[in-house]
Amino acid sequence: MIKRIFEKIGIHAVLIFVSLLSIFPFIWLISTSLKGNAENIFAYPPQIIPHDFTFENYAGVWQRVNFVAYFINSMIVAGATVFLNLLLSALAAYPLARMEFGGKKLAFFSVLATIMVPFQAIMLPVYLITLKLNMVDSVNNFMGYLGLVMPFAVSAFGIFLMRQAFLTIPKEMEEAAIVDGCNVFKYFSECYCRWSNRLWRCLRYSHLSALGANFCGRVLF
Amino acid sequence: MNTDASISEIIGVMFRYYKRYVPYLFLLPAGVILLVFFFIPFFQTIVLSFQDYSSSIYNPTWIGLQNYIKLFHSPVFYKVLFNTFAYLFIAVPILAIIPLFLAILISQKIKGVTLYKILIYLPVIVSIVVAAIAFKWLYAEQGILNYAIGTLGLPPIGWLTDTRFSLISVIIVTIWKGVGYYMMIYLAALMSVPKELYEACDIDGASPLKKHLTVTIPHIMPTLALVSTISAISAMKVFAEIYVMTKGGPLNSSKTIVYYIYERAFENLDLGYASAMAVVLLIIVMIFSLINILFFEKNKYQI
What we know:
The complex is a heterodimer of chains A (221) and B (303). Chain A has helices at residues 2-33, 56-64, 67-98, 104-116, 119-132, 141-149, 156-168, 171-179, 184-195, 197-213, 215-220. Chain A is mostly helical. Chain A has 2 domains: 2-63; 66-220, MetI-like (MetI-like fold). In chain A, helix 3 (67-98) packs across helix 6. The longest helix of chain A has 32 residues, at 2-33. Mean pLDDT of chain A is 75; it is low at 209-221. In chain B, 36% of the residues are buried. In chain B, helix 8 packs antiparallel against helix 11 (221-236) and helix 13 packs antiparallel against helix 14. By secondary structure, chain B is mainly alpha-helical. A two-stranded antiparallel ribbon of chain B has the order 1-2. Chain B is built from 14 helices and 2 strands.
């Protein structure tokens, strides 16, 4: 019994230590952001609790840089990318999961090939193509956004995730719908997209978090 | 007969007639985007790598394998390749083992599991740029890390400014950010280990260490391999940490292959040379990806 208690204390100690390591950089970041002008942020020894406690820096960000515009930019790019990914991945995944047609293998392996090639290896021509399509640093804002969104509008990851979900939906559903006079497009939009609701949500979140980290594209374009 | 019915009838007839084109219609939008932003760039990378852009960006000349020859005679390229593989060989084993250890601890019956999961997963969801800036503060010459080792009586280290430490410092950030992600993958895998086996171990009086070595590890071997290949692929592609924290410096000591491609292409405008490097990266990553697809995620990518 006593051995079990010690074991638990040990486990908690390790997990608390790792958790602290995980959040410490954020604590330090927040602490520095709350330090006022009167305080030397390079003070030695470093101070976690600010002496000159202030929210001025946060106000300063709003005044000095056009933070709202940056935020709106991020939201537009993220939102458009997620929307296009959901729509186009689902469309492409459906025939790969449920239909038989000539060239299915070719289409399947073409998508699979995109997983194997890192974006970094093809980023130069992608940049040149967006340049040729007038999608870079455009005065016209809409085209500028397109340059950021279009290269990431379809992901093989999304297509395979959708395909997996479509495969789990019973085929009898589709047959029943077709007997009742439902065409493929209607069936696709009504049944599949509602059935895989949970999956859409999951894909949406994964894309949003991935976009937060999608820095490579931002630097380039 | 009302108009609605006749329109839907016409659509129905057209639909039956053109039915065999329907799958292609579904694939068309994604196909066009993949063509323009994947397949064309893919082949263009290969074409670019045979051209010389360094003399004039507008009039590239065809120089055959010259870029590759230059590449394999360049000491910087070997340094960069060495750094990338150092990244791989340091980060991958740590990212395969520490998250497993944490996942085993978290899967024990203890209180506060959810809180631990959230805290350890936090670095994953934060933008790498924010994380890199936070670490830049910690690594500063007068920063808190140097203070910490100062209290232990050690001299301060130039974490990002010393050629001996800069690569390790960047690797630490990558590991810090990856632990939570791989821990979640392991946690999912640990759920599938049959409980009876652990009970049998307890009855036989096996020690916790032996229990995990004989039951857990063999059961999650596929996951272990999967985590290794995923982290290897992402280690080959590391860019943002280096861009924010060191810009590849000092003296190329933390420059990896993707950063070097970026630098040659967008700062020196030497597109041909950068593309030749991109082809080398492509071949290396493709090998890892093929291993991953053929052995570990086979059922996910089956027709």
